[in-house]
Amino acid sequence: MWRRCLSAGCRRFGLKGIWGSHAVRRCSAPALPAGRITALQAGDLWRSHFVENGVTEPDHSTHYIIAYLLGAKTIESLEQGKLTELLSREKTEQMWQLCTKRLSRMPVQYVIEEWDFRDLTLKMRSPVFIPRPETEELVELVLRDLEETGVGADEQRTCLEVGCGSGAISLSLLNSLPQLKAIAVDQSQAAVDLTRENASRLGLQDRLQVYHIDVMKDAETFLSLCSSVSALVSNPPYLFSEDMMTLDPEISRFEDHAALDGGKDGLRVIRQILTLAPQILSSPGRVYLEVDPRHPTLIRRWVEANVEEMHYVETQQDITGRPRFCILQKEKSNKDHKLDLD
Amino acid sequence: MSRLLPLSSCVYSVSSRLLWRGSPSCSPLLTPSSSGLLCVWTAGKKDLIDLPALNEDELEEQFVRGSGPGGQATNKTSNCVVLKHIPSGIVVKCHQTRSVDTNRKRARDIMREKLDVLHKGEDSEILVKKKESELRKQEKRRKANHNLERKRLFKEAQAADSKPGNDAV
User: Fold this and answer.
1) Does residue B30 form part of some domain?
2) CA–CA gap between residue A59 and residue A237 (Å, rounded)
3) How many degrees, rounded to 5, is the angle at CA A147 between CA A141 and CA A149?
4) Which residue range(s) make up the domain with B145?
5) Disulfide check for A129: which of A108, A259, A284, B92 has CB 3.0–4.6 Å away?
């Protein structure tokens, strides 16, 4: 029913052959079938092709692409029988386009240009950082605290996000708390643009302000944005520089390295955020950070020694049981104490 | 049979380890213990309020953990959730969305429905709702047929009464 392509020979040449040892292996797609095929058949074909070419998660990749093609989020949520219906020519071509992109190790999220984060579907675009599943838990932690303070419905609270990427965290918070306002910053213009786009798509643009600011280089501008936020949230770049070299091609080739690299100990941006936090937070406002599992102890020690106004509250685990989230609180200063006594 | 057909299982990559995460103190009781942790997770469905609350101590959740630090260093797209209720042995798998968090919440909603059926049988929420829905449909059909019949009789009466020259209705 379909012609097997000649690209099976692609791997025989090896990397040192024609293209030299540092070249990226270029694998071509199987030929488009002559007749019509079903989604299932297309999926089987591409799954095998992914496996042959060392593409990671061959099953998941194929499933998500097919589901997207047929208007669903996951293959499990597709109507029975849709998989065995013959695809139109247009859909077949689209399948081939999408899978060819995946063949180049493009992350599925960039291939289908969207992904889910909690109850939102967000647009994705390279090289803006793709939200990770762990980060959904970070939002839960912030919500838990903001909902608990039991403030009246008319009280205006603002949260601030450093390094918003696609806008996942801020938009998720805004979506869950109708009374909340948010400010989001990112050093990448692409991220700022994407966050604004997602905000519009979700109808949340009126409660979100997005700024193109690098907190490392332009602390002053950052501090001028707001002086009393209830919460400062961030999933800052926290990878150790040496770990940048062992990343999967999906990440190293397609995602912004500046969204990942936290310097030698992974704490470069985190330290800056914690240094600036007391000036941005109201008292008692909190900082919520996603970090590397090796960080919580280091952060606690560093804050105790360097940031008088912030005190370490707790470490929370992610869904895989790794220490992943640090929560810190702005202390009441001595000046505040005096005012209380008067 | 195609390998692509998901059946009811999720596919995990060979290199990752499966991690079962459960409370260290698993109660063997069938009914939620009042001393245990009662946690109600809903995905926003209001009519699930009548379902039994879940005791997180009695649940075990399966995650694909993978090696290495996770987080930003990885971009795995496997987010199927498998939830096991230890006392009854009921297992729920959920991969309805691409969000782990949402799948976890929905898995718990489904678990509550299944536990409800287990405990109450005929009287469980799902079955009661199904019956109500059926009754409503039957009532609708009956009314529709009744109205059609009345219209038919009316028209027949009309035809019998009408004479040429009369005003049409």
Assistant:
1) yes
2) 29
3) 105
4) 129-156
5) A259
Closest alpha carbon to A285 in A319, A219, A329: A329
Interface test with A, best of B98, B100, B104, B106 (most A CBs within 10 A): B98
A292 has a pLDDT exceeding 90: yes
Q: Taking the CB of residue A148, how many other CB atoms lie within 10 A of it?
A: 8
Pick from A77, A243, A321: CB nearest B73: A243
Taking the CA of residue A204 and the nearest CA in chain B, the distance in Å comes to 20
pLDDT tens digit sequence for B39-71 = 445 444 545 567 788 889 999 998 766 667 789
> Distance (Å, rounded) from C-alpha B155 to C-alpha B151?
6
Question: Is B6 close to A75, i.e. CB distance below 8 A?
Answer: yes
The topology under which CATH files domain A114-341 is Rossmann fold (3.40.50)
Sign of the alpha-carbon torsion through B99, B12, A55, B6: negative
Domain boundaries, chain A: 39-104, 114-341
Q: Which residue of B5, B6, B71 is in closest CB contact with A132?
A: B71
Backbone torsions φ then ψ of B21, nearest 5 degrees: -115, 120
